[in-house]
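Lab notebook: predicted structure, single chain.

Context: the supervisor wants predicted structures on file for every construct in the current expression panel, including those that have not yet been purified. This is the next one on the list. No modifications to the sequence; it matches the entry in the shared construct table.
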Amino acid sequence: MKDKILNKKHKNIKTKEVAEPGYILIMTLVLSSIILSFGLMVATMIQKEIVFSRMVASNREAYFAADSGLECAQYIDNVFRDNSKGVSLFLNKITPSTPLDPKKDFENNASVNVFFASSSIPEVSYYVGESFKTKISCASNGDYNQIFSDLETRSYSAGFVENRGDVINNLLNKKTSYSIVGDSTQATTTFGLVIREKDAENKDTFRCVVVDFYKKYSPSSIPGQILLTEKYSIISTGYSSCDLNDKNTVSRTIERYSGN
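Prediction complete. Output recorded below exactly as produced.
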């Protein structure tokens, strides 16, 4: 009887010795899982903060790019014009012809109505044809954004193109260009801007802008006077980079309308 009791106690001791290491292993796994889950949660939060921070920065860059495009369009319209005739460099109609030739209309308007001999525009009154185009640039530290230039020697400008899609395609290659479409009652000039800046490491960074300048015109009540602009709108879309097809590129649009 005594031997049976001793054997039973011995078995219980062995059971405890086996059970205790197993219990510790389970606790270790549980604690490791908790620590790992907490680490993953913190890592996820940090990643989201980084993404959010980049998004905020990209939003800001896209907005300021759009603002630059808007101010550029407004500047050109305000400065390169003949107020006595109510016309500016931006067309408000396309001359009916077969085929339509908006580029010719644009250049004729510039040489006849804007950059004519008696123009009050300082330092550019005698520039016509390609010369006046190389004198107009925006959002650049030099002549980089000569948006109307047709000179093939300028690797950063593609000049006149057929449609808005071509303007956007040129921006993908960091080239400026312009397009004009319309009819006898209105016209829209679309142009691209490439904003080049230096980052903290003194490397070139690029942002791009597409600007649509719409104008409508109506006959003047004064016989013989050139048709005046009645209504306009400017829609400027800025991008945080010139890789417009990149899903991480952010765009922002600013619009401005006339009161009419």
